[in-house]
UniProtKB/TrEMBL annotation:
<dbReference type="InterPro" id="IPR022474">
    <property type="entry name" value="Thiopur_S-MeTfrase_Se/Te_detox"/>
</dbReference>
<keyword id="KW-0808">Transferase</keyword>
<protein>
    <recommendedName>
        <fullName>Thiopurine S-methyltransferase</fullName>
        <ecNumber>2.1.1.67</ecNumber>
    </recommendedName>
</protein>
<keyword id="KW-0949">S-adenosyl-L-methionine</keyword>
<comment type="similarity">
    <text>Belongs to the class I-like SAM-binding methyltransferase superfamily. TPMT family.</text>
</comment>
<dbReference type="GO" id="GO:0005737">
    <property type="term" value="C:cytoplasm"/>
</dbReference>
<feature type="binding site">
    <location>
        <position position="9"/>
    </location>
    <ligand>
        <name>S-adenosyl-L-methionine</name>
    </ligand>
</feature>
<keyword id="KW-0963">Cytoplasm</keyword>
<dbReference type="InterPro" id="IPR008854">
    <property type="entry name" value="TPMT"/>
</dbReference>
<dbReference type="InterPro" id="IPR029063">
    <property type="entry name" value="SAM-dependent_MTases_sf"/>
</dbReference>
<feature type="binding site">
    <location>
        <position position="122"/>
    </location>
    <ligand>
        <name>S-adenosyl-L-methionine</name>
    </ligand>
</feature>
<dbReference type="GO" id="GO:0032259">
    <property type="term" value="P:methylation"/>
</dbReference>
<feature type="binding site">
    <location>
        <position position="44"/>
    </location>
    <ligand>
        <name>S-adenosyl-L-methionine</name>
    </ligand>
</feature>
<dbReference type="InterPro" id="IPR025835">
    <property type="entry name" value="Thiopurine_S-MeTrfase"/>
</dbReference>
<dbReference type="GO" id="GO:0010038">
    <property type="term" value="P:response to metal ion"/>
</dbReference>
<dbReference type="Pfam" id="PF05724">
    <property type="entry name" value="TPMT"/>
</dbReference>
<keyword id="KW-0489">Methyltransferase</keyword>
Length: 210
């Protein structure tokens, strides 16, 4: 069956897309202390402007996105040329230090993420149904090296059954991520007029025990 996200992009139902950099990224990223040249993995990246901000901070960006429409629209915002080539089953597009890989995040292999030193996840968990969230947390942990830091932005709302966006509680984030990451809750926002409440987390990939 076709992934419902492909349909959403075709129909332009992308209410999750922000027209500015997410304020929590600007507020919290600098304090993480990620090395200036560290490559940032952005799973389920959409056409997020957050990737531009990360690139402007000097980070090479590796975004993974299922929908070709998202990738085309991201690069169309700038007139600079885009190099395109196939790699490891993905269609890769590169503009400056932003590389977007079109394909399924779960097919990204650790070898393709070898240079990744940090990660940024806004609205990935809430895009996925419960069983797939387990898989996501495990796969992310496989891709990032011990010590890698990242921000995770998620949300809750009142309807536990409805989604996407799915409501993902703080307890669930802790349960999913704690086996492989150290977690710190940075912010639990106020509910908006639709009852949606964002939470912001700092994560650090646990290393092997010594
Ligand atoms: C809620 S949106 C968030 C997009 C982006 N992170 C942002 O903040 O705007 C989730 C995105 O994940 C993409 N997606 C869903 N499943 C995916 C998968 N298995 N692999 C890659 N991308 C996927 C969707 O097409 C959609 O663009």
């Amino acid at each position: 069956m076709k992934n419902p996200w492909r349909q959403r992009w075709k129909e332009g139902r992308i209410g999750f897309h922000l027209h500015e950099t997410h304020p929590a990224l600007v507020r919290y990223w600098p304090a993480l202390g990620v090395g200036p040249g560290a490559k940032v993995l952005v799973p389920l990246c959409g056409k997020s402007l957050d990737m531009r901000w990360l690139a402007e901070q000097g980070h090479p960006v590796l975004g993974i996105e299922l929908a070709p429409e998202a990738i085309e629209q991201f690069f169309a915002q700038r007139s600079a040329g885009v190099a395109r080539y196939p790699q490891a089953g993905f269609d890769v597009s590169r503009q400056g230090n932003v590389e977007l890989w079109c394909g399924d995040f779960f097919h990204l292999h650790i070898q393709q993420a070898a240079e990744v030193g940090a990660f940024y996840d806004r609205a990935s968990l809430i895009a996925l149904p419960p069983a797939t969230r387990e898989r996501y947390a495990f796969h992310l942990a496989q891709l990032v090296p011990p010590g890698a830091q990242g921000l995770l932005i998620s949300l809750t709302h009142d309807d536990q059954e409805a989604g996407p966006p799915f409501s993902v509680s703080g307890q669930e984030i802790e349960r999913l991520m704690t086996p492989n990451f150290r977690l710190e809750l940075l912010e639990n926002g106020e509910a908006d007029d639709r009852g949606r409440c964002e939470s912001v987390w700092a994560l650090k990939r646990r290393g092997p025990l010594v």
